[in-house]
Every structure is written in C-alpha cells, then in structure tokens.
Amino acid sequence: VFQGILMARPEQVSDSVKLAQLWLHESERVYHDRLASAADQKKYKDLALEQAKKYFKEMSPTTLMSEPLIFCHFANGVGDKTYDKVSSTSDLSLLLESALKDYNETHAVMDLVLFEDAMRHVARISRILESPGGHALLVGVGGSGKQSLTKLASYTAAYTVFHIVISATYGVADLKEDLKDMYRKCGLKAIGMTFLFTDSQVTDERFLVMINDLLASGSIPGLFAPEDQDDIINEVRSTAIRSGVADSREALWGYFIHQVQQNLHTVLCFSPIGDSIRVRARRFPALVNCVTIDWFQPWPEDALASVSKRFLSDIDLGSDMAKASIINFMPYSFAAVNKLSARYLEAERRHNYTTPKSFLELIALYRSMLTKRRGEISESVERYVSGVQKLKVTSEQVAALEESLKQKAVEVEQKKAKCEGMIPMLEAEKARASDEARHANAVATEAEKKQASVEAMKSSIEQDLAAAEPALAAAAAALDSL
C-alpha cells in the first residue's frame, strides 16, 4: 500500500483529504482487486468506509469516498508520468479515447468501448506497469478485454508489448530465446516492455517454471550460457560502475537483473474457468504471490448498454424509441441468459458460461441477421417494384395499342366502304373483260383456221413447185444448147 502511496509526488498531495483518498485508493488496489466475487468486494468497501470514519473523523466520508476514486500516471495527460487523482470520469474518458485513437494510428486497430469499468482496469494495469518490478495477474473469462486493455495501458506508459507466437513447433527453447531477447532489451537498452502471456499459450507446463522464476526474482536459472553472461557483464560494466556498483561478476550481474526487473513487466491473462488456475497457483506460487491481481468481473448492465449502443449506432433502427428498445434489449437478454444459467447450474450441476465475448457475438449475430433479412426484403421489394413497373409499362403499351387499333379500325371501315363502292364498277369491268376475252378467243379461233388454210395452200404450192423444177431444169439446159 505504501509503495503505491510513495509513487505520488508530495506536491500532488496538497491536503489531508487527498492523502486519505490516496491511502484508500492504494488499499483498494492491493486488497479489493484480489477479491474474486462482487459480494466480497462490497464487503471490502463497507469495511474501508468503516475504517475511514474511524480514523478520519474530521473528514466527510462522502468526500473521502467520492467517485471516481482513481489515481493513475496519466491523469494530467498521456506522457506526463505524474501519479495523480483523476478529476472526473469524463476527463478520464477523453484521455483514454485520445490515447486509443493515437494507438490505432500506429498499431493494429482495437475497436474498444471504454465504459467506466474498462477505464478503471486500464488505470489499474497502468499503476502496476509503472510500479518498480510490478507484475499483474488479470483474471477474467475470455473476451473480457484483458489483453486489449493491457495494450492500451502499456501505450499510455510508452511500453512495448511483446507476446509469444504459438505454433506447432514452439517449445521451451523458443521461449528461452524470446526471454533472452526481452532481457537484453530491458537490461542493456533500458527499454520498457510488457510481456503479455495468456493461459492459452501454456502449451507446455515447463513454460510456467521460467515464468515463475521471472516473477519471483527476475533471474531464470540456465537462461543465459556462461559466455553470454560474460558478454552482458562486460556491456553493463561501465554504466553499473558509474551507478556505484562494485566491479565484481556477482554485483554486475545483479545490476543487470535489477535493470530487467525495473523495465520488464509481466502481465498474465488467465481465465477462472476450470481448476487449471488453482492447480498452477499451487505448483507455481509466484503466479499469485509476486503479482498484483486484478479480477475482471462480469460487465455491469451499463457497460453492456454502452457496448450495445456503440456497435449498433451505425445501423438505421428506425425511430429513437425503437432504437433505444433494441439497444436495451441486448443487455436484458444477456442478463436473462445468465439467470437461466444459474438455475441450470442449480438443477443440473453443470455450467453454461456466458462471457463478454458471447455478448459481442450476440450483437454480431443480430447485425448479420438484420443485414441478411433487410437484404432479402430489399430484393423482394425490388422484384415487386420491378413487376409493378413492368405492369405499368405493359398497361401503357396496351392502351397505346388499343388507341392505335381504334384508329386502324376507322381506316379499315373507310377502306371497306370505298372497296364496297368499287365493287359494281369492278364487276362491270370484269363483265367487259369477259366479253373481250370471248371476242378475242373467237378472233383467235378464226385466225387459227386461216393459218391452217394458209399452211395447206403453202404446202400445195411447194408440191407444185417441186413437180415443176425438173421441167424448168430441162428448159434451162435446152436454152443453154442454143
């Protein structure tokens, strides 16, 4: 508690009330945050209020316990390491929203909803990271924001976050190499680092042996080979001697480990589900004894409502009343499932876990179903509109055709009447043509007869000529002889 109190500068604690609030805050961080249940946390607050009334009689309990009772290293702005009290929740929100925006510009984007509980966790994690040799154990179900809030808190402290990348071949040797790399950066280059380690990354229980040693003393046996230790000692010798460290192997190595402890902060993110955390705490006591514990309780209803509002704000949900009803229904349905899960546990002795991730999946499911349904309705509307448009066009075309048919019918009647008027004339012409045809046939018949007579006459003449040709030839011969 007093280690935390000493992080504040004297000029920041200007009066006895603020000093008492600082004491209450640090006590809450040390004792309250380790408690697993909301009921125990409430008992602690009642006890703290009782002690405040007992030992700070001249101060108003309301003033002492006024919210937000939050001290952090970025109360006066990110980058200003002054450990001071946050003036209001809205100011804290502005600070962290700005930090999140800056973070997203240079890192993978985190779409966080910074409701009050989330901001309190960021302040708690930041306090741990800024503490000399501070390590954290964040306990909460999956999806509660432990890793994301750690990254944001590390950003406010200007720390680099490192987490191992698990693969099928990642083993103890790989973890050692990663740890050696972090040790060199923190111990030789004084780079502030956050080692983010989750229970899902414990693919080999031997990992926890090294993590346990790291938390307990900062020194991991066998991490560096003797020749590597010699190189490190030679590299830190001049800096260490200037700091007043004796020029001996043990002292120089101790200086290196001290630098590592000052700059390397481990944040463990474990889930309380199952017995693994209890078993590991017994086997590796430093996981609990050498860390500051922060329990992530189930999101309160106002937090759920804030998250719901954030992720549904960009969707058109109709009127303001309808939108508010839908947003409020999300936390209501989540709470209803939690109640049913409790009844299910009592009746069947089986757990049904609902996590913040489940709530986010509920909202995502609603969004996807709404988008899909709206798409189907939109397609149906488009089909109906297209059908109506086609019917309208067809109706207009039919009307135009009907009008055209009416005009054509009038023209047909006119032409029909004209044709009917021409029928007598055509019949007379037909009769005259028939008469002329008969006359022509008669003339043709007579001509054929005359042609036959002429042909007969021609044939007779040709015969007579043929008969006369010998006599004509004889006469011509007699004439020639004369």
From TrEMBL:
GO process annotations (BP): microtubule-based movement
Annotated GO CC locations: axoneme; dynein complex; microtubule
Domain of life: Eukaryota
Ranges where the Dynein heavy chain AAA module D4 domain occurs: 110-369
Keyword Mitochondrion assigned: no
Localization (cell): Cytoplasm, Cytoskeleton, Cilium axoneme
Ranges in coiled-coil conformation: 391-450
Span of domain Dynein heavy chain coiled coil stalk: 382-482
Entries under Pfam families matching the protein: AAA_8 (PF12780), AAA_lid_1 (PF17857), MT (PF12777)
Keyword Coiled coil listed: yes
Keywords: ATP-binding, Cell projection, Cilium, Coiled coil, Cytoplasm, Cytoskeleton, Dynein, Microtubule, Motor protein, Nucleotide-binding
Residue ranges occupied by any Dynein heavy chain 3 AAA+ lid domain in the UniProt entry: 1-60
GO function terms (MF aspect): ATP binding; dynein intermediate chain binding; dynein light intermediate chain binding
Primary subcellular site in the record, as a coarse category: cytoplasm
PANTHER family linked: DYNEIN HEAVY CHAIN (PTHR22878:SF69), DYNEIN HEAVY CHAIN 6, AXONEMAL-LIKE-RELATED (PTHR22878)
Protein name: Dynein heavy chain AAA module D4 domain-containing protein
Organism: Chrysotila carterae
Lineage of the species this protein comes from: Eukaryota, Haptista, Haptophyta, Prymnesiophyceae, Isochrysidales
